[in-house]
Amino acid sequence: MKALVTDRQQFNNGQNKSPKTPELRALTRSSRSSLGKETRNGNHRGTSWPWTQADKLVLTEYLSSLEERYDAKLHLLGNAFHSPGYHSTLPDGTWAHSTRDSFGYALDLLSDGSAVHVARACDVLRAAIALQDQDQTSPTYGIWSWLYEEPLSKMSPPDWNWADFCGLKLSEIYLLHKKSLPVDVRALILAGLGHAAASIYRRNMGPHYTNISIMGAIVTTLAGEISGDERWLSYGCARFQKCVDHFQLHGGYNEYNSPTYTWVVARDCERALRLIRGREARRLATFLWRAAWQTIAEHFHPPTGQLGGPQSRSYTTFLSPDFVNWLAIRTGLPLQPYSLKGALTHHENSYEDPFFLPCPKDLKGYFRRVPEKPYEIKRRFVKRPRETDSIWGTTWFSGHACLGSVNGDLSWDQRRAVLAYWVGDANKPVCARLRILHDHREFASSYVVNQQLGPKVLSGIYFLLDRGDFHPIWGGPPDNVFQAVDFRVGYEFKGENLQLQSLPDGRFVVSAGTCQAYVTPAPVLFGGVEIAWTARQEENSVHIEAILHQGKRKAFDFKTLFPIRIAAALEIDESTSAPKMAPLKWQEEDGQATASWATGNGPALKVSMPQRPVILRE
What are the domain boundaries of the chain? Predict the structure, then answer.
């Protein structure tokens, strides 16, 4: 590979320099004060960051906690593997050795800097890089398997994102610690990074895949700066520009309001601003960093300490401790994570070095401001030729609660199409979300349509052909015939000391602390069979649901399943008296069913849906 490029100005004055739009100028200008002079000028690489004794102690304790997970024979970091339900066929709980975690471990060992840890880091890097597919004729060229125990040939399917994730770690390791590495390890890193960049280039993921498109721009730009290869520099900067253009076109990130991946974008752009030297790439990365922070800030609800819905991709019921701690450090505010027995949770068990960029000053108030009066925001996430087909999010906030919904989107394990939080007993948050389950797992061949007005949202559900089962793409039967022992839809409430009540008018009420949630169900038809809504309570949870099928395994042919009508309404109420009952009504015409809800305040809410499964036209 070529030597590191030293003349950045020549590239930045070339044809890849793009004009600033007014929006880009505004976002870049508003965030500039948050980027210190040292960071803006790019004089920030290497290990000279001012570590305090407290920082070093935290790192030492963290590395000690990983000692029992290190395999001295494989030179990789192990852990109990928990599958998301796709890509891997390894049984949940299997002890396995992660490639990405091992690269992160090597970075942390090098940050410690002791001779013993540097030597171990080199062993880890040699072992982990060797697991990359470096055959340029291979379909999986440039990527790694998730786990040592499950090579690429056994994954279902391989994850091409690993070129991005692992490539970014290799870039960090090389730029921050290359002086500590022997020649052979440096050569391995450069080769591995080059193959990862080539995989990213060949895949050429579009900007609709928000976090991966931005991560790929960072990795290819860094590969170009490290190697001096103008091909990677040009591609990386052009990809950054596409991400910015895409955001401006749609009005937001397509992976909207994700407590996982909007956070990943903010973290990765922070890394980019630490490592990238090219002015044009840094300018674009600043825009994307600021846009991620703005998305997080305007959806944050300080009374509950949660991120209001809707959320395109989330793995947890409440914000993860890692994310909350990350926010607390960058805002300087005493934000506290909340955990609940039985709720979905996720912890990366990762170490973060002392380098960070603070939250933009003008956004910091969002994280401590309690709404004096209720208000609502609407944000467009996906712009389509007909504005009525665009994807929009609505989020309502009050001093005690927040409720968010998307006007229409696929339902799957990571999506939160309807999501509410409110302040429960002892000021602990309560969560409510709409779920569609097949054999007790989120069902991805389903679609949710919503109309929301303030603290009220009406939801309709229909089903899809030629889609996946647990994942929107993978796992669906080729003949559209799903086998099931259980199909159900409904609302799940998570929180402490929940009180459930069934009202004589057919509504259900879930109460805790300062608020009540009223569920108004509509009569359900599933394949022509009438289904009643029921409610059940478990420890720290309440479920209000229509059980479409339960019992022996049964085949459901989605090509012929008809008619289907599923709708319900959710209202968050902060008053001491029950809101007046407003029943849901159905109207049918030309194979469509429309549910309407006359709430008494403003126009009736309406949602329409096909009465049989359809092919989704995006």
Answer: 1-47+207-370, 66-203, 387-590
